[in-house]
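Bumping with the actual sequence this time:
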Amino acid sequence: GHVRVPRGDDVLCRCGNYGCLEALASGPAVAHQLQTQGLEATNGADVLRLVGEGNLQAIQALRQAGRDVGDVLATVVNLLNPSMIIIGGSVGEAGEHLVAGIREVVYRRSLPLATTHLRIGISMAGDRSAILGASQMVTQYVLSPAVIEATLQATG
């Protein structure tokens, strides 16, 4: 959230820096942008409601938030060359308008070799993705062969 986004030179983040992704593309940031355009939006849920109602300003703001996320992810793609990027959690609930903005920038700014087989999609886990991921990590650690072996050796 606190990675610098090129278009954010004059946007102050709550961390004290300027141009952080969170200050430009978070639910509250997009809601604030819509408020300046005269729309009733105080948080990310309001943004999603407006998008669901087909509000063009909200759709455009969400698409721009996707482009901002895409700016950061393009660097990740060029560095790590992943085969898949899954957008999850509350961000994933924003749906295809956000992902379209992400795809637009990632595919434009990343090397063709890195994007040939790259898939960008939305998690089916929805707002449960963080807890599912954390539980998976705990399970993999607790049940790893090394931990089981150490436990067996400790118990004699």
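The tokens above came from a reply further down the thread. The beta strands are 84-87, 119-122.
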